[in-house]
Hints:
Layout: H1 10-17, H2 21-35, H3 43-64, H4 70-84, H5 89-98, H6 110-142, H7 157-169, E1 174-179, E2 182-187, H8 190-200
Amino acid sequence: MAANRSAWTIEAAIALAGDEPAATILEAEQTIRAHLAPAPVEDVARKEWEAALDERLRRLAVKIAPGMSVAQGQQWRLVMVESLSDLPAVIVLTAAKRAIHRPMQYLNEVEGIVREIAGDMVATRKLALMRLAALREAIERASEPSLPPPAEEPWTEAMVDEANDRFRRLGISTRFRLVDGAVESYRADPDEREAERRRAA
């Protein structure tokens, strides 16, 4: 949902995130940031990435200029790998793969089309990060300690347990308890939250 450019609501996103939205948000952000990471510089990883991009470019060259000599093809791919290395590593591989479906007559069209596809992918992921940040802020605002609205009848242990379970599933640390018949709020510490998670499992 975060990567979908259509309209969405915080409530729908929280519902989709499941019982542990905070952990789900963090995992999603890590995945997106991995997609936006630059090309590797470490020798082995760099060679593997270059080989993967080279293969995608080879397929594009066969499609556009099947009569090109082996030497010319190798030189063109070397230049293209270097030229496209400023794009995020994962995204440029996907963009080069998707480019095979775009009509092209000349090899000098390849870079522009790959960059166009990659640009759309980068924009989508940046939008997703913004949405996830907004979702996290909404959850954090909701976690500010506050008493439940006054009830017509005195709160019972069952009502407190229900409220605490709802907050736990939202990833909110605020909890409630009865003290001398009155409801008070507090923040659950990590040990208490872990114990809750185990009981709910």
